[in-house]
Amino acid sequence: MMFWKKEPEVIAALEIGTRKIAAAVGELREDGSLAILGVGEAVSAGIRKGEIVDYPQAQQAVRDAILDAEQKTQVEIKEVYLALTGSHLSSRNVLVKTATEEDDALVTLEHVRELNDLAAQTGMPADHEVIHELVQFYYLDNRVKTTEPVGLSSRSLEASYHIVSGLRTRLETQVRCVVELDIEVVAVAMASYAAAQAVLTPDDKKLGSVLIDMGAGVTDYIVYVGGAVIHSGVIGVGGDHLTQDLALGLKLPYLRAEELKIKHGSLRWDPRHQPETITLARDATTEERTVWMESIAAVMQARQLETLELIRADLEANGLWPQLTGRVFLTGGASRVDGLAGMAARLFPIPCMVMNESRFEGDMSHNRRPELSTVLGLLRYAQAVEQTSTRPRGLARFGSSVREFLSSMNLL
Fold first, then answer.
1. Most CB atoms within 10 A, among 186, 228, 275, 359?
2. Alpha-carbon distance 26 to 332, whole Å?
3. Does one domain contain both 47 and 194?
4. Both 61 and 152 in a single domain?
5. Which residues partner with 135 through β-bridges?
6. Is residue 292 part of a domain?
7. CATH number, residue 136
8. Which residues of 152-167 are buried (b: 16+ CB within 10 A; e: fewer)?
9. Which letter, b or e, does each residue of 260-281 get, where b requires 16 or more Cβ atoms within 10 Å of its Cβ?
10. Any bridge partners for residue 162, and if so which?
11. In this predicted structure, what is the pLDDT of residue 238?
12. Residue ranges in the chain whose pLDDT is less than 50
């Protein structure tokens, strides 16, 4: 028999990943803190590079993860916050302006909302919908910068935003996969933005830091300066590609290559401290094999270096490195690979560290699992939303156009 906790004090987050589906449940305490109650997990199916390619299989995996979370936490999950990723996501920075026009030139909440609407419409591809309108800064007369303009006097109000959008059809598929299970999607968040809430401190965000979330199918990254998001991106390469490279380079079946990566994978080989070779035992599909450790490292180095170089080049092309005085933080399941911190330190112009631990109260068994950074960070995002007076409902943060297409599908 299950004894359900009271719904108002419980929040849930869901990540539909390439290798796993994770559903995290947290409890909002009376003092405003967040405690992790537990995490349900299921092996992914029908997911490729963070996107659904086999709908029935993916939906069954989501159902399994939700049921696992319910059984572990004794909480009935009726609504979730959903993390989104995929190479179809795009981002841009925009600057919009409005006039206050009233006699007292007082900035009101309506002016802020007007800027939000203008930002969402600026440069939007016809087949995309907005996921985030992340305010960077507001500017009053004479370019005076502020983060809280309401109640101040100014003849005009400008705002800079980081806008994240995604293909309408892909968003629709992911949301429908959850809603058809009779679970409401309260709001969504870009995966890297969610992970940042688990990994980065307020000081990290102010100093200027980069978070790289390395998953199985994709690598998400996000850049903060002055406490605001100024850049983000998704690369369709992840830990699975390391496995594929090992399988091709060493002529191994995929499952044997995955086992090899997990047990012996490394981006470095030092003959003084590591064996020259390892022996793979015979199994039903493969004869006994001897594999050179130097070969494993060479294959994995090439792929991992390429991924990190793409991120470095993107940040360089956007002129961001001079603004960053913090660190590069690496997290996600694929960040577990040996030698990653050293490779990143040689490549990036600011200090780097692999973040293997999150700071959460409650069930501590998940704090040292970097593969859960996104779903646990999504709980922290949900906590912030729940504690405001303007809680988004039914993807309200998407904007009216998304609400319209979800309504047409009877999803709202």
1. 186
2. 20
3. yes
4. no
5. 161
6. no
7. 3.30.1490.110
8. bebebbbbbbbbbbbb
9. bbeebbbbbbeeeeeeeeeebe
10. 93, 134
11. 93
12. 1-8, 391-412
pLDDT of residue 220: 97
* Greatest C-alpha distance within the chain: 84
Distance CA 218, CA 222 (A): 13
Q: Does 145 lie in the same domain as 40?
A: no
Q: Where are the beta strands (DSSP E) in 174-315?
A: 184-190, 209-214, 219-225, 228-235, 277-280, 289-292
Residues in the chain: 412
- Please tell me the distance from the alpha carbon of residue 395 to that of residue 412, in angstroms, as a whole number: 9
Distance of CA 318 to the CA centre of its chain: 21
CA proximity to 111, closest of 79, 77, 142, 146: 146
Which range marks the domain in which residue 381 is found?
7-87+169-199+358-408
So what's the pLDDT on residue 390?
53
Give 289's strand partners.
Answer: 280
- The three-state secondary structure class of 336 is helix
* pLDDT tens sequence across 188-222: 999 999 999 999 999 999 999 999 999 999 999 99
Total domains present in the chain: 2
